[in-house]
Amino acid sequence: MTAKRGRYSAGEGTRVLLIETAERLFARRGYDGVTLADIRAAAGQHNASVIGYYFGSKENLLRAIFAHRLPAISADRDALAARSIADGGAPTTRTALWILVQPLANTLRDGNNYVGLLDRLMETEILAHSFRSVDPAMTDSGFGVDRALHTALAELPEELRRQRIGMVYESALHTLARYNRSGTVPGRAELSSLIDAWDGLLHAPASDETRSIRDGIRI
């Protein structure tokens, strides 16, 4: 029985090693820039079939990265959301931004390259495809933030809301990925300053020029 448990522990350790090695390489070079052989070599694995044994395919390995990281991120977001509800009042864009950003910033330690991975994958079809196959319970908190932002910006036209929220998502990932690549972690004051900027972007008034163009009026 002891030997069986030992084999299981070693097997799980190898699985996690492959997941975290793949995450690091994908974050550095992109999904398409990394082969299974690259991952195997970087993980110090000599068995040519080891990734196939544990995951079956490269895409399943990517899904395993999400399954490895998302539970902790989701739990952090749920805790922040619960605290916000307990404090009372209608959710604001600033509150939603903290719920979005803080859990991602919390990953910037202990060799965690999840934010760098997301940044690399953000504009690829593989990201959306992989997320669709992830357990919905692990992505509900992220969709909750998206709904909160749309609700808090209800006064904006839908097209403008989508554009600005998308810009915030891209900027947040790019910015946190730079911390990831430099091996640093932003402090609370730094994060608050960044959220000032992203909140300002969401609420920036439309210029006369933009309103005129949207209304089809030549100025």
UniProtKB/TrEMBL annotation:
Alphabetic keyword roster: DNA-binding, Transcription, Transcription regulation
Entry keyword annotation includes Nucleotide-binding: no
InterPro entries with a match to the protein in the record: Homeodomain-like_sf, HTH-type_TetR-like_transc_reg, HTH_TetR
GO molecular function: DNA-binding transcription factor activity; transcription cis-regulatory region binding
SUPFAM superfamilies in the cross-refs: Homeodomain-like (SSF46689)
Domain HTH tetR-type: 18-65
Protein name: TetR/AcrR family transcriptional regulator
UniProt source species: Nocardia flavorosea
